[in-house]
Amino acid sequence: MFGSHLSIAGSMCNALDEAESLGLDTVQVFTKNQQQWKAKPLDATTIDSWRSRVAELGFSGRTVSHASYLINLASPDDALWAKSIDLMTDEIERCEQLGIPFLVHHPGAFTTSTREAGLARIARAYRELFTRTKGYRVVSCLENTVGSGSNLGREFTELAALRDLILNDAVEAQRLGVCIDTCHAHAGGYDLSTFAAASQAIDRLEAELGLQWVRVLHLNDSKGALGSRLDRHEHIGRGTIGDAGFQAVLRRSEFANIPKILETPKEGEDGSELWDTVNLRRLKALQQGSSVEPISISTAKPEPAKSKGKGSFQRSPSPRGKSRTAPSAKPIPRSRPERASQKNPKSGRRGKAERA
């Protein structure tokens, strides 16, 4: 079940139409401009159109939304914490209206407080969120991070501890889940660079958290080295994870029926194919055990396609960007034209402005 984070610029259904054209099984979107605290409420026409198109494509029960990066449920600042809860409430409500079952968000940063205080702050926020949205079906998924600065959620044990704290205050366990990002895990210190190492990392995830809690996967190669704490996404097979690590992830039966979302860069050298098409083809080949063309990892920019102008990779749409480049023997995929002011997650700037 493969998808990608796609833009809703112009219309939310544009992301669904693009997902269909790319041959995807699902999609991840922002339901609003992720760089703004306030958003215009969803109108009935938008809701009905989205729901109808999702049903038509067979995407029901598998779509994903990514919450705004402005949200910090761990903040020690009372005003920012309250604003974050309000915005997260709105994110949950919008997903409920649209029938989007999974809402991914970063746990938060404790900034001037302590790790323990930050975790407790998130748990308290969840108590308020689950009270405000009692009876909703949306599953809020805590995403692992690279652990830079005071950001929480790098270690699997920390995600487990946070889950337990939340469930002590809020009993709706079915509304809580986890999203594991491969780039974040690798750059955060979990070696995914070989089949054996990645398998061991997944075993640790199972032992320390439980694979049943993983409701969404973000499949991104990593520009940063193992343990670098660099949140920069790279195309599949072109980063420091490489093909073998993704093979280990894709061959775990526990992940077979959950959304697996690409947040790889969209921009790049002008060529014959979209990057999402290239990455999707590679993932499917790795999943099926088919042969894939070796890729030489390099820190250099991709070689420009012959007779084509040079493009540029942009930072990932997250505050901790995510792009990396490497030469390839195949034609360099063409860049998807930019739409309005919104960018795809982790493929342009992270403040995914409506960008992972």
In short:
With 356 residues, this protein is an alpha/beta fold. The protein contains nine helices and ten strands.
The CATH first-level class comes to Alpha Beta
* Integer count of domains: 1
- CATH homologous superfamily name? Divalent-metal-dependent TIM barrel enzymes
**Taking all residues together, what is the mean pLDDT?**
85
Q: Give the proportion of residues in helices.
A: 25-40%
CATH architecture: Alpha-Beta Barrel
Note the beta-strand portion.
5-15%
Distance between the termini: 18 Å
Placed side by side, the strands forming the largest sheet appear as: 1-2-3-4-5-6-7-10
Topology pattern, helix = H, strand = E: EHEHEHEHEHEHHEEEHEH
Spans of at least 5 consecutive residues whose pLDDT stays below 50 are 296-356
Number of helices: 9
Note down, in words, how this protein is organized.
The protein is of the alpha/beta class and 356 residues long. The chain has one domain (2-288): TIM Barrel. Helices cover 34% and strands 11% of the residues. The protein contains nine helices and ten strands. The chain has an eight-stranded parallel β-barrel. A two-stranded antiparallel sheet has the order 8-9. Helix 4 (115-132) packs across helix 5. The longest helix is centred in the N-terminal third of the chain and has 21 residues, at 78-98. It starts with a strand and ends in a 68-residue tail after the last helix. The model is unreliable at 296-356 (pLDDT under 50).
